[in-house]
Amino acid sequence: MISLKNILTFVCLNIISxxxxxxxxxxxxxPDEVEVKEVKIKSELSELSTKVHEHSYAxxxxxxxxxxxxxxxxxxWVNRSIGGGSGAxxxxxxxxxxxxxxxxxxxxxxxxxxxxxxSTDSTPAHTYxxxxxxxxxxxxxxxxxxxxxxxxxxxxxYVSADLINITDWPADYRTFACFDxxxxxxxxxxxxxxxxxxxxxxxxxxAGGHLLLIGDATTVESTKRYGNGKISIxxxxxxxxxxxxxxxxxxxxxxxxxxxxxxxxxRTDKYIERRFPKIIDVNKYKIPPPPVFLxxxxxxxxxxxxxxxxxxxxxxxxxxxxxxxxPLSAVGVSLLLALLIFVIDGTGGVGTRKVHFVINAADHxxxxxxxxxxxxxxxxxxxxHLPMEVAxxxxxxxxxxxxxxxxxxxxxxxxxxGYFPSRASVVHYLLQPVVTRWALHVEKTSDGxxxxxxSFPAQLSNVTYTDNDGKVWMVKSxxxxxxxxxxxxxxxxxxxxxxxxxxxxxxxxxxxxGVIPTLDSIEWEKTEIIVSGPIAFNN
Length: 539
Fold this sequence. Notes:
The chain is α+β, with helices and mostly antiparallel strands. Helix content is 21%, strand content 36%. It contains 8 helices and 32 strands. A hairpin with a 6-residue loop joins β9 and β10 (126-130). The radius of gyration is 34 Å and the shape is globular. Residues 20-31 and 255-273 have low confidence and may be disordered.
């Protein structure tokens, strides 16, 4: 018989056991507290466009948030191939103050089909695709109708177009340098963009860009020249069908009328602007074949290490002598060849430069576009400095094809490596926006002619100006500060300036004015400087 005492004991033990089990279960079901760590460094990387011209700027935006109590130093690496590698590396430095968020804008040069970008803070890589194989690149303002982007992408003019938000990027010429066309609503250009943006865009137009302003339905179509570029105004064409709009744009972008950036193409009868000026005598600077006597030295060395060593110096029974005779003779011949090359070729190199300086006088801005070809000898030091706003790219001077320069390095303002390899023929392309007060002042005289006055620092020759009626005026020679009356001429040459613009050669005997300097050890045999652009004023 079960007693009351046993029943109470059993019940108590079960209650205690359930309590212990419940307590254990509750303790297991409660998750451990997770410590949330604050991200100390956060960065973002974005590009203006994935479609840029070769040898042009490829603007990028780099935003860093620093939540530490120390300045954060980071670097941005730009490689010429996806995933990095041994391509032409460009390095940009950025310093973010403690507890601050800072945005940096960098302008690497696009000299390859692909550019890959990564940073020291493990920012995901962004890849740029160079659209150099298309005829033109264009940017459409984000305030335009979407139909305009569709029109460009569907046109037969091989236009690669991107939608951009202009005010998200600096008011800098380099922001727009990778585009041939810029499409903006007229109201945005006149009322929403401040003067700094309009100034940057005007310099881009003077250098060969084409601005297309979209007005309202009542706007009258018009196109006018501005420097080496154009400004076109068109109605919104809201009621125009897509096919009609595409046909109209194809006519506007006729390749025969289209102008690239500064530089002259001497192979045609028309004044067609190029991105960089062309040097005609580039083949003059190709590396010549080695002299005959170098081959004779190598032949003598082969005879020495062959019959002479085996028969005379290290005959049978004394072959062990070859272990020190051949290495010592090889070192001796190498030193002899190096000495002969040094004596015959020397150090440094020789070259030719051609510079086109586009002046936008009303804004006091200018753009230097420079091509230079160099034949190098022995280069003892390949390091040189370029300001951050100067873009440089290049290629080997080879027969029938373009070979990009290899192993070039640029970290901020310091350039080195393969830009100037020893015993090579290379071509460089340099681009630099500048602030300048150089200008050609043109004033209409009482007898219907024009007087020219120069504020350039050197003598100008063959100063040519085209008035708004298409009539050409010329002064053969114009000194700084000098004021001369121009004579009307019948101009049949290739380089007739556009209406309201001028063109001249600047006679710079020292080759230092308006030229972008690079390696000091290069001797420049010829420096040709062309200046052009809108005149300062026209009464």
